[in-house]
Amino acid sequence: MTAEDAKISAYAHPERLVTTEWLAEQIAAGRVGGPDGIALLESDEDVLLYTTGHIPGAIKIDWHVDLNDPVNRDYIDGARFAEVLGSRGISRDTTVVIYGDKSNWWAAYALWVFSLFGHEDVRLLDGGRAKWIAEGRELTREVPEPTPVEYPVAERDDAPIRAFKDDVLAHLGTPLVDVRSPGEYTGELLHMPDYPQEGAMRGGHIPGAKSVPWARAANDDGSFKSREELEAIYLTEQGLSPQDDVVAYCRIGERSSHTWFVLTHLLGFDSVRNYDGSWTEWGNAVRVPIER
Amino acid sequence: MSSPAPTPLPPSLAEIAEDFSSASNDLKLQLLLEFSDELPGLPERYAGHLDQLERVDECQSPLFLTVEVEDGTSLDDRPVHLFFDAPAEAPTTRGFAGILHEGLDGLTAAEVLAVPDDAPMRFGLAEAVSPLRMRGMVAMLARIKRQVRAKTAA
User: Fold this and answer.
1) Which A residues in the span 14-33 are in contact with B, Cβ-Cβ below 8 Å?
2) Which of A122, A164, A289, B123 is the most exposed place for a label (fewest CB within 10 A)?
């Protein structure tokens, strides 16, 4: 067993994470793509990054264009989700592996949205796009043409893993994790460094929220820290417990998807919800309490 | 009631807008990637001197730009030159810069200042890359015009 395999097997739900080595073996064995194969999806912040070159067999999925409703501030519905997956040759029982840029932010976001629809077997590639490239592995510009399949229309089940503003108001006093940068947490910044277009009227954080910037869970190469290191941050330092009912938030819910993944799948917390309205809702809402 | 006709784009930019508008979403992304690939690198005098460039914070990934305006007697005979720097991992941002470079570099200061602020929204790109991402290009154009205005002020 390699050191990476040992790291992954120590997580609460090791089946949620695959290594670059494992993926390379699956590709070499012809097990990626095709009607019975693994579906490999790339989910990036930059909508063009996939087009510049991607892991062989990977199909693009875009958080804006594919997963968000084009009109309402919400995710797509079950019928649209069935279309998005079916057109990519993904069945309800397909193993889906997602990877992306920026330490898998957007990959974790896509995985969380897949989870809203109850897609059972969905995993992340540890380290994402950056690690694959750093290891000198193959990239291609060849875009697969999957044979469309029938994906059932599954109703989105938000309640277990998604929190809305009213849920958060009712949740005040129980654990909240603010995963934004320290400047956003204290209210000095009304937006994330480098992202002023997603600002808010008020700065600060939701009362009682603990500040744990999402990137603390990632190594420099984009992979997740070991279970031991993660426990030191979330359990020892922050005093959270896997039995806690936790809500995580950021600015639009993508960085907090990364933390949601860490708490739920790597540390085995029972009840973690992602508040995707996050600061762009809370910091613009009238008469909600704010702490600075 | 009819609304006033929109301010026209300069021919070089109008041609690019036409290419994008008539393309499918997939083709729009291919075109944008070509602009990203073809964005000229910084000339020697700027390479390694990003502090001499203006940082465009509105882009999702950092972009630096600067403008040079040649000498002349009026805004109508002073050509404008544009310089950009953005990392290869940010092809969308590079693509936006490439469009502006191709469409505006070499125009006179007067022509650049006359480019309507909503020009980036006339490429039909929003549906391919999402409206949120278009804000970066709007911000680039605004900063280019601001620099031209500052550099031609008497």
Assistant:
1) none
2) A289
- Which of B58, B91, B128 shows the shortest C-beta gap to A52? B91
Q: Give the model's pLDDT for residue B19.
A: 95
Say yes or no for a CB contact (<8 Å) between A47 and B130. Answer: yes
B5 at interface of A, judged by CB pairs closer than 8 A: no
Instruction: Name A224's Cβ contacts closer than 8 Å, sequence gap at least 6.
Output: A17, A126, A217, A218, A230, A262, A266
H/E run at residue B128:
helix B126-129
Q: Which of A44, A117, A107 is nearest to A80 (CA)?
A: A117
User: Which B positions 112-141 lie with beta carbon below 8 A of chain A?
Assistant: 128-130, 132-133, 135-136
Contact criterion met (CB < 8 Å) for B95 and A197:
no
As a whole number of angstroms, the distance between CA A171 and CA A246 comes to: 9
Say which CATH architecture domain B11-151 belongs to.
Answer: Alpha-Beta Complex (3.90)
Range with the lowest mean pLDDT among A275-284, B65-74, B96-105, B119-128? Answer: B119-128
Residue A259's closest CA among A289, A227, A215, A228? Answer: A215
The mean per-residue pLDDT over the stretch B16-36 comes to 94
Give the whole-angstrom CA distance, residue A153 versus residue A134: 39
- The model's pTM: 0.89
Q: Which of B49, B54, B79, B80 is nearest to B65 (CA)?
A: B54
pLDDT tens digits, one per residue of A164-183:
999 999 999 999 999 998 88
Decide if pLDDT at B113 tops 90. yes
The full set of domain ranges for chain A reads 3-135, 165-283
Cβ contact, residue pair A64, B57, below 8 Å: no
pLDDT at residue B129, as a whole number: 85
**Complex ipTM value:** 0.78
* Option in A64, A101, A198 nearest B130 (CB): A64
Q: Which CATH superfamily is domain A165-283 in?
A: Rhodanese-like domain (3.40.250.10)
Cβ proximity of A257 and A111 under 8 Å: yes
Does residue A250 have an active-site annotation?
yes
CA atoms of A195 and B56, how far apart (whole Å): 10
Structure-token match 């205005």, residue found: B149
B49-65: pLDDT as tens digits: 888 888 876 656 678 99
CATH 3.30.70.100, domain A3-135, yes or no: no
Tens of pLDDT along A239-251?
999 999 999 999 8
Asked if A46 lies within 8 A of B93 by C-beta distance, the reply is yes
